[in-house]
């Protein structure tokens, strides 16, 4: 590249005008060709943090039948560094992830980080900076107590109360009041997701003796959220190998293609914020659907992996993401539409309610969506899943990241 | 390190069109992070006439370990005014890497403008101790080797290799702080004593000031950049590389990651006239000058560099901003900007910026 050969002179002569900006020469399509997860559990005392992330990365490489040398760059994400007590741990993890001599980026966007991390990695390919990128997210929550880690008293700011549940419970109550949904809907979500988790060998919670009655009899933690309607605290990592069109052509297994991806953020607290259905979530979904050519998400999307840390967030997000009209989301849940064999399966993997290494939870949603369109989700596979949405959110319902993946390459 | 390849040409012309920073100070007790950041955001937007709602993508860099609490960046977002909702991301890295993420977003063609900001308040804690938490948590961090001690190991290795000596290091400090007299934002400028040994062979004068600060940059693509700025600083190339974490497996007198990043950014294709290096310790300038092949004719750190102001998490982004500002003022035509992270220059980013021919 010689700057002198660039068409600088022609641009220099053009005055500041309303002329359209320089168009990019077209985005490179992005494909998922490798996926790896650890078996998520409460405490992986047998491995270091490096050992945990390497396990997921190796599985993703094996799935793609690639080696460390095939990876051009590494994009890693996790939630707050205080969870493990390591500041900017990507520095220490460079060796374990084969990143020495390569670019390594570290993303942190609160609970949405797993999704955001994958999207940052997709930019590297779509912008033709790199051909093949390893992206990974993890949390090793057994190193600390995440609930109290999320309960820091901050001077002059509203306390988050005891853990994330204390923050979100009033918003669940607001949803129930607003829609008139029966009290039992939350327990239906938990019962479904925990049964789905039994079909996913990587899920943390495998409650073989789960019954609806047990969910409904579990202790009330943050009214109206019961113990069995909350996510666990997990140690786990999830990795994906993303590549360009040429890389996908070499892939030994079917690729999942990205058809749309977006992030949106809004402030934590402000007058007029709708905590039940945040505008940032609606805008993010609308952007993804526009990119993917989705006119009617309920009709055009086959399944969803969404970030549901507390059971009631399933009906809430069904509305926020446009799968149901306002006030109608709980009816989809209640009528069994979101069951694994329903018309719009939600959280086939068991979801965040069954597995929650916080920093990785968003990427697990993205990866599970990709597994579905690759036809590799095993026992929790949805037959004929062609287009699946992966969704993550974080902070005070303020950070959103989503992607839509398909079995076919994007047409435009 | 992989074999060097020729620098790829970016898919799109992207430039730095505005830059603003705080006056960096030892303490800012009376200000929260968002209060420190907000005036900088207002100034950088005012330079272009853009408002938050005009910005296509926003990306920031900061660390919870300075703020002392989880999710600290979420409150900083209040300074941006993210309503209606914005397309936004955050890296737990120096703002130079936030700029890199924004650059990739612009490359995709999804957006034409990006706001990048970074901030760090080192004053509430002991940053020397805080940075030990970056080290291998099993084998190194329990020993609490502080950042000055690790930099001193590197300085001693350079002296042992015959690459520098204490008077030469002192000269780097003197030159940097003399240059900083022209920089109203700098924290340390003019005549600064060499001081006692902090950790031999480094004296207090070889170390950066500890302070609080913030910075912001606006990027724009193609014609949009020309509309927003008289003389955009075009990013001809930008790349970053990381090295092994263990100091024992690295040659501390060299920086292969900085060299490779520079190669990939196209820095060696033609000489630069200016270099803004993120070298918090005098000895690290010696390493970087060698790795980046900066000759005598290059004006190194005309801003005073990190030896004059080192607000952690923002200091790397400031190097890019300072280089771009010099191009904007017509003081440079082709400048190299560098940012670093991790112990002893473990991770390095290099950007090559150019003004249009005059």
UniProtKB/TrEMBL annotation, chain B:
Q: Which SUPFAM superfamilies match?
A: Thiolase-like (SSF53901)
Disordered, as annotated region: 180-206
Tell me where on the tree of life, at the top rank, the source sits.
Bacteria
**Residues of the signal sequence?**
none
Which residues span the membrane?
A: none
Molecular function (Gene Ontology), one example? acyltransferase activity, transferring groups other than amino-acyl groups
* Protein name as annotated: Lipid-transfer protein
